[in-house]
Design goal:
The complex is a heterodimer. Chain A is α/β, with parallel strands linked by helices. Chain A is flat, with a radius of gyration of 23 Å. Chain A contains ten helices and ten strands. In chain B, strand 2 (25-28) and strand 3 form a beta hairpin. Chain B is built from two helices and seven strands; from the N terminus they run E-H-E-E-H-E-E-E-E. Chain B has a five-stranded antiparallel beta sheet, covered by helices on one side. Chain B has a two-stranded antiparallel ribbon with strand order 6-7. Classes of the chains: A alpha/beta, B alpha+beta.
Amino acid sequence: MAANRRPHTQSSARRRVASPTLAMLPRVGDSLSFLYADIVRIVQDDTGVCAETTGEDGDITRVHLPTASLSCVLLGPGTSITQPALATFARHGTTVVCTGSGGVRCYSGTVPASLTTRWLERQVHQWTDPDRRLAVARQMYTSRFQIGVPAATTLEQLRGMEGQRMKALYKLLAQQHRIGRFRRSYEPDSWDTQDPVNLALSSASSCLYGIVHSALVALGCSPALGFVHQGTQLAFVYDIADLYKAELTVPLAFSLHDSPNPEAAARRSFREQLRLFKLLPRIVTDVQTLLAPGETEHVADGHTDGEAVEMVNLWDPKSGSVPAGVNYAPQEAPDVP
Amino acid sequence: MPTMTVLATTAVPDHVRGALTRWMIEPTPGLYVGTLSARVRNELWAVVAASIGPGAAVLLHPEANEQGFTLHTAGDRRRIPFDFDGLALIAFRPQDEQTTDPEEPEPTVPAAG
């Protein structure tokens, strides 16, 4: 906790409340996981961000949203949102994700501007070198297997093992819940006719993507530079989400095989599971371990105990980085003819 | 395991307020804070909720959920707790006409005079 040494004047306090410092915002691991909003209008009034619904008679019911303590807001297709509200979300480091109905599909996400670039630089460092990238991809696969994997195993073999593992898991869970044959299918066109397990699986997966997305954005990583997946803006999100699916979303979806409203039930139970698994802090730790395997001291999500981090530096190939905002012209300027 | 409990009351009968001070302190009018076990809390809340008359009361205490606390309300006021897939937020009703069912996803308020 950074102690504020100078007492606030009324005007400085008012400014601080409007645009909070990093120390005033909860760490990504401490904040509430996600909020799904649909069929509302999200606006910024003079005190905060609220979701409005208008009744048939034109009366407006308002729900204030705890922006500073939310890590991710999922906007359903029935939502409209104003620019000041979006700006407030960005100032508070809340990821805003546009999703399909019920939180399925993740169309886009926003990035706050005032983030440390440390983890992005680590990610790019690991990603650009084929050997290092392969090492991270292997690590992602092997961390999911309970058994040791020989070092000579190729990535292709690892993919095969992972496919086998998921198949076996589906089969085991289908037997446990006595659902004959289960086939994973994702068909947005025939959404309402799908079986509850597939609905719950899609709903929980997109929640998981939203949360992973917001964790990555909160760390300042690029969601697009994946190690196993590639070619999509959310490749790294899919990479990280896959680490938890077998443990979190798949058993949850099968347990909802006779639920009347599997999508909402999936979101509700998923929230409970998130708390049990302490998922957000775990995502942050896992990403940091993957990107910086040698480092033991992990700085959590850009927070430092004390002053704010040095935000802008200039890169120097020899000394790493030098302070920005300094004029580096030589002191003895040669006479210009 | 006693936990910190906060009880806020609005326009409740005097005898309820007096009774509450025997369990908790009253740092500002109508707000009671104390450390109560779950059993005492439930008994007390049952009594308070049944005797508020036209007033209202809100009970807050720690709970093992994502928000870290849970809230109970008694009496009818313009602020209604809403459940967003397990996250409790507060809906502010424009007119206090009648209670809405907290289970329904969208509050609709009848025409007010």
